[in-house]
Amino acid sequence: MRDERIGTVHRTQVIDLLNQALAEGTLPEPEYDNRVVAVSSATYASDLLGQVQDLPPRLQWDPRNAAPPTPPDKNAGRSALVLGILAIPFSFCLLGGLLGIAAIVLSARTGGTHGVGPALIGRVLGIVSIVLTIGAAAALLSLR
Questions:
Q1: Most buried of 80, 86, 98, 133 (most Cβ within 10 A)?
Q2: CB neighbours (10 Å) of residue 99?
Q3: What is the pLDDT of residues 28-73, one digit of tens each?
């Protein structure tokens, strides 16, 4: 297998193996710290393999069996935007908070695309609707 670039999912898998080695006493804490730092800055599979190669076989990492990262949901951004827009007027009847939470959750499923787009606008509108819902609930409670 050729040396391929790795992602956050792969780094997390190796850190989990290092955590197990630390918990079992196979790896002393100072060495664990050094390896976690090396894993967090790793770029290639060989960088990760070097951090677990001397651990017992049950704690070995195989890049061929590593789970690939899940692809981003292409429709989540638009859905987050629609829910965020709907959440604003419904905030005053307390339903907007739930729609706002749904908009925020959907915006997180877009794979972390950068820049201003539908997902970010939906997230902002979701946050605004939650704040408005809390304000509306506080206003209702103060009327009592």
A1: 80
A2: 24
A3: 999 999 999 999 999 998 999 999 999 998 888 887 776 665 666 7
pLDDT for position 125? 93
**Residues 21, 27, 33, 38, Cα dihedral to 10°:** -80
The DSSP-derived string for 98-113 is: HHHHHHHHHHHTT---
Cα angle 109-114-119, degrees, rounded to a multiple of 5: 45
Burial 110-124 (b: 16+ CB within 10 A, else e): beeeeeeebbbbbbb
Structure pTM?
0.50
d(CA 52, CA 79): 42
Q: Whose CA is closest to 4, among 38, 64, 62, 45?
A: 45
